[in-house]
Amino acid sequence: MRIDLITVLPNLVRSPLDHSILQRAQEKGLVEIHVHDLRDWGLGSYRQIDDLPYGGGGGMVLRPEPLFACVESLQENLGEPYDEIIYLTPDGETLDQPLANRLSLSKNLLLIAGHYKGIDQRVRDTLVTREISIGDYVLSGGELPALVLIDALARLIPGVIGDANSALSDSFQDGLLDAPAYTRPPEFNGMSVPVVLTSGDHNAILSWREEQRLEKTQRLRPDLLPPKHEESVE
Ligand code: SAM
Question: Residue 234 — pLDDT band, cuts 50, 70, 90?
């Protein structure tokens, strides 16, 4: 998968991309991530990228010309259409695991991180194919949301995580939360690891985990479970 990210703060995203799973994914050639500084397409000698909002009010708005020029040039270099051009925005569709699963099958994605008051609506109306929010709260810029999206997608690409089953058994993959996890030592400060996990009985461990997942989901996130079958009133 190839991901291009347009940002006004390229240095902000470099460290997370250069560590841990995202770093290994790129080193293995499973994900290619290119960060583009919008200012390279800025206007005039000051490389202007934003301006005051028409109609007044606080905050600056990212101007359309640099964004159009940047997207067009990246599109031309790619040589084929992006599967999606995604604007990270609080009023977009909320990112969840099914959406991450679908997007992880993409060949190439272009992400736009907004700033200040956001980006000119004409970019959203014509260039952007999908708008994604990472939750109902407002951050200062789209860089952290873009990193959240990139991480959520990259770990689903076969080969990125050593044990593929690990990602598939994580919370939300099949509508349930993950089971509790334990490691050594078997006793710590008077607390023991559930006996079944050290029993070596694989089937018993699987059943225990399923029970735990269901119990935890019922307790913490009952909204994830399908509604109980209502008995029809005769
Ligand atoms: N005026 C915008 C609004 O109220 O919808 C908020 C702009 S926000 C201060 C600046 C940028 O941060 C946005 O353009 C967007 O790229 C990013 N952003 C902030 N919160 C976000 C969220 N929850 N999900 C995705 N992107 C977000």
Answer: very low
